[in-house]
Amino acid sequence: MPPKEVYFDLENSGYVPDDVVDVMLPYFNKRGYGHPAITHRLGWEALDLIIGTKELVAKTLNLANPENLVFTHSGTEANNLAIQGYLIANRDKLRGKKVLVSSIEHLSVIFPAQFVSELLGLEVIKVPVDKEGFVDPEVLKYYVDRDVGLVSIQLVNHEIGTIQKLRDLIEVVRDRNPDVVFHTDASDAYGRVRIDLRDLDVDMMTLSSHKIHGPRGVGVLYVRDGVRIEPILRGQLSVEKLWPGVELTPLIAGFRKAVELAFNNFEENVKYLTSLRDKLLNGILNSVSDVVLNGPSGDERAPDNVNVAFKYVEGEALTIELSGYGVYVSSGSACSSRFLEPSHVLLAIGREYELAHGSILFKVSRYHKGEDIDYALEVLPKAVDRLRTLSPLTPRRA
Ligand SMILES: Cc1ncc(COP(=O)(O)O)c(C=O)c1O
Predict the structure, then answer these.
(1) Of the listed 335, 347, 385, 386, which one is catalytic?
(2) For residue 361, how far is its CA from the centre of ligand 1 (angstroms)?
(3) What are the tens digits of pLDDT across the range 155-199?
(4) How far apart are CA 302 and CA 298, in angstroms?
């Protein structure tokens, strides 16, 4: 066993702290395990949990009506429901129209957009981003015309931490075509960036529980009144009209607790994350040569995200090497790393294949301490040095 373990792979799955696990357990066997759509005491308890959690989430979003929120069983499902559900429900009026997604969206946005568009005869256009991952409003203007039906642009990028200037982008879209429905995947923004739905003029928005140390298996979709979407699954009785299948009350109880924890002291949490992020990033830049930051810096970057490319190093090899020291990170995106394909996000910001392959994603969390960062900074230069010594790509300096 390594002397210490530090988990930075929070993009792919977060750990669930004890106080979140503790509130979940009774919902398996003590209370609230009834079916929330059934009229008996245990059903009502389950229903209360669902209603109460939606009220809490609505409060964190400054959303007046919690009934605009739908629980799904993951962020992937919420994105699929938004994209597929909207396109299918409105297929007649959308015939021949276009769907715009940014080229750095999560694949749970890009793939359903492509899949349903092909079935319905729509065209999907990936809007390019600049070298820090921003969609330029002027570039977006070029793509939005009367033939665009749906736009999906995330608030924060999950790999490179770009905080999109979403209000400016929405303004461009509304100005060019007021009929467009605008979806944003806010899975990586929730709990790190303030979201105010009275101010942010989106029609649909996705959240994911495990991105804020809740359990995996809870997603949320916000759907504005008047936006017509169709369920994409058909099945049994449930409280959610848009998502069949019995609600996962133990997981929803955990999500509720995770929301409470993320939003108690929100500003301090963000300040703390930012300090850990900067300590880690500056430490890497000061202790390892030939490193390039992926994504923007400062206030334009998510407070928990550090993504750097190590020249002359293969990312997978570095994840394995660091794992030997008990430091767990991912190389680019999990979706890509299993297939050893460079991340589509890194390619979209113009990273060469070699640099994309040498990129490592760290996510810091309020459960990290300064000493965790110190430990990572102690072992990282050793791991990088060893791999560079072995690599034929490393320039040999006299
Ligand atoms: C930006 C973004 N959207 C959606 C998802 C999918 O969420 P889930 O893992 O809950 O399916 C992820 C997952 O990592 C993500 O990073």
Answers:
(1) 335
(2) 15
(3) 999 999 999 999 999 999 999 999 999 999 999 999 999 999 999
(4) 9
